[in-house]
Amino acid sequence: MSIAICPGSYDPITLGHLNIIRRASRIFDRVVVCVMHNAAKPSPMFTVEEKLDMVQRAVSRYPNVVVDTSDGLLAEYARQFQGAVIVKGLRAASDFEYEFQMNLINKKINPEMETMFLTASEKYTFLSSSVVREMAMYGADLTGLVPNEIIGDIQRKAQLWRKK
Ligand code: ADP
Questions:
Q1: What does the pLDDT read at residue 162?
Q2: Which residue's alpha carbon is nearest to atom 17 within ligand 1?
Q3: pLDDT number for residue 55
Q4: Nearest residue CA, atom 4 of ligand 1?
Q5: 119 Cβ partners below 8 Å, 6+ apart?
Q6: Fewer beta carbons within 10 angstroms: which end of the chain, N or C?
């Protein structure tokens, strides 16, 4: 069985992420979406539990997609799925530089691990979780940026943050 792992911070999941997950789910038998606790991004908007819940609702329409979480290194996490391929989205040259470096480091830790990149769909190349967080803080309409089923979650959280 072919397995893809789609790692990310998903703070929150966007339609850009979902586009990559859906495309991976057509290529691989099974897709594991892994919400990573990212030490490089120290103050997330959402807790891991909230992110897992939102990702779960967003991918529930895809029968071969499951959701998991890890607070370790991706290269270590991937060892439990034999032959699994990491699938990531590439938006721009800046993504490429970062991903290329990460891939080299991951290969040092786990030489068996392979990474595949899918180019972002044109309509989502501008989209990132940080853009969504910023738009939400200004009370902007999030339609077309994130899955409809999580818009309420983000608006409620942004309201709480505005009161801080
Ligand atoms: P972000 O960079 O938005 O904080 P993550 O750290 O959660 O997102 O990213 C997880 C993966 O999803 C990365 O491989 C990233 O390149 C990819 N990704 C994020 N946004 C998009 C998008 N709009 N289109 C395609 N891939 C994306």
A1: 84
A2: 89
A3: 98
A4: 129
A5: 89, 90
A6: C
pLDDT at 6: 98
- Give me the percent of the chain exceeding a pLDDT of 70: 99
How many domains does the chain fold into? 1
Is 39's pLDDT higher than 80? Answer: no
Report if residue 134 sits inside a domain.
Answer: no
8 CA to centre of ligand 1 in angstroms: 7
Contact in structure between 127 and 15 (CB atoms under 8 Å): yes
- Are 4 and 87 contacting, i.e. CB atoms less than 8 angstroms apart? yes
Mean pLDDT of the chain: 95
From 18, 90, 128, 145, the mutation candidate for ligand 1 (largest count of ligand atoms within 8 A of CB) is: 128
Structural domain of 46: 3-125
Q: For residue range 92-101, what is the model confidence (pLDDT) as tens digits?
A: 888 899 999 9
CATH number, position 88: 3.40.50.620
- Whether the CB of 129 sits within 6 Å of ligand 1: yes
Torsion of CA 54, 45, 115, 112, to 10 degrees: -100
Q: Is residue 158 part of a domain?
A: no
State the distance from the centre of ligand 1 to the C-alpha of 94, rounded, in angstroms: 12
Q: Ligand 1 center to residue 90 CA distance, Å?
A: 7
* 149: in domain: no
